[in-house]
Amino acid sequence: MAHFSRLTDDQLVRFVRHFLAAIAGLVAQATLADPPYAPLMKNTWGDGLYFVFSGPREAGQFALQLCDLIKRTDGGTKGLPKDLNIRIALRAGPVHEYTNPITGFHDYIGTHVSRAARIEPITPPGYVYASEPFAALAAAQRATGFVCEFVRQTALAKDYGTLPTYHVRRQG
User: What pLDDT score does 147 carry?
Assistant: First the structure.
């Protein structure tokens, strides 16, 4: 979330109540959709949201729904900063499924997860950015409901290199 680090302790409680609870509702809605586009795995770390999907169609649809949800949630009326916003990064590639030996929970790990995490900080607030592998797989699978438009070669966070980035937006 953009500007999350500015929140006070009281605002963090409101963030959970108004933003995280709304996102949980979106996950439930995605599960019931026809066809469903719910994440295979979901986790949070403070303001960081981490989801794994079965394919680019599900990830793209969920990301745009999440972006819309955050735009509709007026933080100012809930005692939160009005400029609280989300940046979403999408990446496609093989990941390793495992049971985390520390938490005991089902999880995914891999370099593609790390690359998505490096795209998120350079994504403008209120946008969904994707990697070239995501855009290519979405096109190859003819994912509907969104398009991936080339933005530029972008330097990723934490000196992770430079990769082509794409803006994911609704079709039409």
Answer: 96
Q: What was the pLDDT predicted at 5?
A: 80
Q: What angle do CA 17, 30, 166 make, to 5 degrees?
A: 95
Residue 168, C-beta contacts closer than 8 angstroms, at least 6 positions apart:
60, 63, 64, 88, 90, 128, 129, 130, 146, 147, 148
Q: Is the pLDDT of residue 109 over 80?
A: yes
pLDDT at 112: 82
Q: How many CB atoms lie within 10 A of CB 103?
A: 9
- Comparing C-alpha atoms, which of 88, 43, 50 is closest to residue 68? 88
The answer to whether domain 4-170 has CATH 3.30.70.1230 is yes
User: What's the CA gap between 146 and 139, in Å, rounded?
Assistant: 10
Domain boundaries, the chain: 4-170
Span between the terminal Cα atoms of the chain, in Å: 27
Q: Average of pLDDT values for 140-149?
A: 94
Beta bridge partners of 154: 163
Q: What is the pLDDT of residue 36?
A: 86
How far apart (Å, rounded) are the C-alpha atoms in residues 24 and 86?
A: 15
